[in-house]
Design goal:
Chain lengths: 160, 160
């Protein structure tokens, strides 16, 4: 464990911005469950936005227990040692976002720029934005290079 | 939800065999946590083998509560809609495997064939194999193509 230098912070910011999907951990009947989600980071990484269907298991899970863990993992590029792939786990609580306020419009615009194919979800009543408020994070920049981060550490990496 | 046809079963088997890393969900102080692991499926998919360091958080978690969820997600290839990526979540209980019996040697050989760079972990005392015994699974072959599977369903896909 150590403080992040500038290059490490830049690698973290690139990972969070460049990947598009993540593994969402929720509680289901008291046991962990993991599923795929598309995500959009807030510009300052203080929260991560998800667009969830109320029909999905993970959404049902979050309505029962807001605690969530989101692992953003560098896509496997076939390198000899996949343990060197960069990844960060963000932990916090998730809550649905209000529909149709000013923040909703900004998030919708950014979401559609990142996921143009998801336009249809804005015509379906069962989808809404959720925001995962990040409490802390664990960044593994590569084998043995682990950084435990607070939410302010993450924001410093986002704004560097 | 529907039974798997032959093409879907083949897609599931290819996903489990071709990916090398997965997102492991464990319980940490009662909350979900997700981390990256390399994995090796048993030939019949009845269990998934992991090589874990006892120093890692997820290993500490599994020693407290064996329940685990492992999401194997097709690596993002930059397609327009990442929600169409195939993924399967395997749920069950994880336990350490005995060292140095005949099964250990077979798993070690297969592990080194898949992860040659991990040879060093066989010289370190803190690594051991764990086996996630699969109880059930959820396969999302693509948007809206979800299959809830029993362990025997998975084995049928493995042996097809």
């Amino acid at each position: 464990m150590r403080a992040m230098d500038a290059a490490t912070a830049a690698a973290l910011a690139a990972l969070v911005r460049n990947e598009r999907v993540a593994a969402l951990g929720t509680l289901r009947a008291g046991a962990p469950d993991v599923s795929l989600v598309a995500y959009l980071p807030a510009p300052d990484f203080s929260s991560i936005r998800l667009r969830l269907s109320r029909l999905a298991w993970h959404t049902q899970d979050l309505r029962c227990d807001a605690r969530a863990s989101l692992a953003i993992i560098q896509a496997d590029d076939g390198r000899p040692d996949p343990q060197t792939l960069a990844r960060v786990t963000l932990r916090g609580e998730a809550a649905p976002m209000p529909d149709a306020d000013r923040e909703f419009m900004a998030v919708k615009t950014a979401w559609l720029a990142r996921f143009p194919e998801s336009a249809v979800t804005f015509e379906l009543a069962d989808f809404s934005f959720w925001s995962l408020a990040v409490r802390d994070a664990r960044f593994v920049a590569g084998l043995g290079r682990t950084h435990n981060l607070s939410a302010p550490d993450l924001t410093r990496a986002a704004l560097a």
